[in-house]
Design a protein that fits this description.
Strand 3 (71-76), helix 3 (82-95) and strand 4 (111-116) form a beta-alpha-beta unit. This protein is an alpha+beta fold. The chain has a 4-stranded mixed β-sheet, sandwiched between helices. The longest helix has 22 residues, at 131-152. It starts with a helix and ends with a helix. The chain is built from 4 helices and 4 strands. Helix 3 packs parallel to helix 4. It has a single domain, classed as 4-Layer Sandwich (L-amino peptidase D-ALA esterase/amidase), CATH 3.60.70. Its EC number is 2.3.1.35, 2.3.1.1. Keywords: Acyltransferase, Amino-acid biosynthesis, Arginine biosynthesis, Autocatalytic cleavage, Chloroplast, Multifunctional enzyme, Plastid, Transferase. It is found in: Plastid, Chloroplast. One of its GO terms (cellular component) is chloroplast.
């Protein structure tokens, strides 16, 4: 079984796509009991460089502050220090995903995964109080809020 899985990985990796269609396929792939897939993406300038921030989420029941059985994935190609990124994500999650409830139930199965690749070539953001960090925070908040609203208004 493990060998079959390992042998299939190159094919799976080669089938990945950085396109909008690929992002949509990923959002559909993580749905379980969801009625619709939930994804959003924006492009903006941070420090004069074009960057992208995208997000997708799944979950349709047991949605409550502290996320319950919700899975969120947020990505950006901005270059940001990991400690700064972690703080930014926590701020954004508290402003968005931790503000909703669907049925009042919570569980231990909640996660937001946030990845920053740095592939945009932007200047590194290493201070949460700098102008570029504030620009990226606004993008992150916009994506998180839009994804969160898809739980309420699919």
């Amino acid at each position: 079984m493990q060998e079959a899985l390992l042998n299939s990985l190159p094919k799976q990796v080669n089938s990945l796509s950085p396109s909008i269609a690929g992002a949509g396929s990923a959002a559909v792939a993580i749905t379980t009991t969801d009625l619709v897939s939930k994804s959003v993406a924006i492009e903006s300038k941070v420090g004069g460089t074009d960057i992208k921030v995208g997000g997708m989420a799944k979950g349709s029941g047991m949605i409550h502050p502290n996320m319950a059985t919700m899975l969120g994935v947020i990505t950006t190609d901005a270059l940001v220090n990991s400690d700064v990124w972690r703080k930014m994500v926590q701020i954004s999650v508290n402003r968005s995903f931790n503000q909703i409830t669907v049925d009042g139930d919570t569980s231990t199965n909640d996660t937001v995964i946030a990845l920053a690749s740095g592939l945009s070539g932007s200047t590194s953001i290493s201070n949460i109080n700098c102008h570029e960090a504030m620009q990226l925070q606004a993008c992150l908040d916009a994506v998180s809020l839009a994804a969160m609203q898809l739980f309420i208004y699919p």
